[in-house]
Amino acid sequence: MSFTPFRCLTLPLIAAVGLAASPFVAAEEPLKFGIISTESSQNQAPLWDPFLADLSEALDREVEPFFATDYAAVIQAMRFDQIDLAWYGNKSAMEAVDRAGGEIFAQTVAANGDPGYWSLMITQRDSELSSVEDVLANASELVFGNGDPNSTSGFLVPGYYVFAQNGVDPATAFKRTLNSSHETNALSVANGQVDVATFNTESMERLEEVHPDKAEQLKVIWQSPLIPSDPLVWRENLSDELKGELRDFFYAYGESEAEQAILEPLQWSGFAPSTNDQLLPIRQLELFKQRAQVADDASLSADEREARLAELDARLDELNARLEAAEAEQAAAAQAS
């Protein structure tokens, strides 16, 4: 595979990583593929190279990866048409759909057959902390590694289940709070730089492969409910022709042994069709979190609190109706097939 300099973009915090996913120079503009920063771009690039090369060959055009140091830069890149499609987590996909003209068209299928993944809270193996209750009771003495603010498993899910449900603000409860990638959080805990941090099961599997000695230094003290598999999002304003080509590629990819070998390092076995309805449970979770914060906000008057709660409840009722309709539609489609 040949390597060419990555085109400079005028967005903050971009890690310039140069590689071309195809040996030829296509007449069309390169397809730009955004990749969220679950770990360093130096580690991610070799995992993605073979897959992007296959995508390039299938589309008969160059495919350029876009790596950045945080999730927000990938969202902003889609907003300003600097990328054409991206792999996001559910929380960042929600931001891309709502603010960057994105649309979900597929979701990943886990190699181990799991229907999704789980958020974790981790500490050092020999830590006296053994539960969320221990963490919250000693928060003022602990350094906490929180996830990227646009991360589903690193921020949104623990933000609701661990903190909002317990009436705790992690930004003020701890001695110090740092926001980092999954990899950085895990390594910081293993190295004793952070006392407790968010993580997830997919990243734990990855850590056990690349840094088994560090993985052995970790202890899981909390696991979340199931999180839906990660979505693939394209710009809604892509041409129908290109969308069709992308559907054909993603929905069929993984059928051969060679493709399975390429997907294995990414911890996937293929891709399934999906839509923006995948985000409905995530939207519920975001609203539940906001509702808990409003209910506990002592700075609000009784009337202000009641009005805001009524507004959030109305939005939750609307989401519940949409979710029920989507589930009924899926059940009907499954029965028909």
From TrEMBL:
<feature type="coiled-coil region">
    <location>
        <begin position="302"/>
        <end position="336"/>
    </location>
</feature>
<dbReference type="InterPro" id="IPR017797">
    <property type="entry name" value="Phosphnate-bd"/>
</dbReference>
<feature type="signal peptide">
    <location>
        <begin position="1"/>
        <end position="27"/>
    </location>
</feature>
<comment type="similarity">
    <text>Belongs to the phosphate/phosphite/phosphonate binding protein family.</text>
</comment>
<dbReference type="GO" id="GO:0043190">
    <property type="term" value="C:ATP-binding cassette (ABC) transporter complex"/>
</dbReference>
<dbReference type="GO" id="GO:0015716">
    <property type="term" value="P:organic phosphonate transport"/>
</dbReference>
<keyword id="KW-0175">Coiled coil</keyword>
<dbReference type="InterPro" id="IPR005770">
    <property type="entry name" value="PhnD"/>
</dbReference>
<dbReference type="GO" id="GO:0055085">
    <property type="term" value="P:transmembrane transport"/>
</dbReference>
<dbReference type="Pfam" id="PF12974">
    <property type="entry name" value="Phosphonate-bd"/>
</dbReference>
<protein>
    <submittedName>
        <fullName>Phosphonate transport system substrate-binding protein</fullName>
    </submittedName>
</protein>
<keyword id="KW-0732">Signal</keyword>
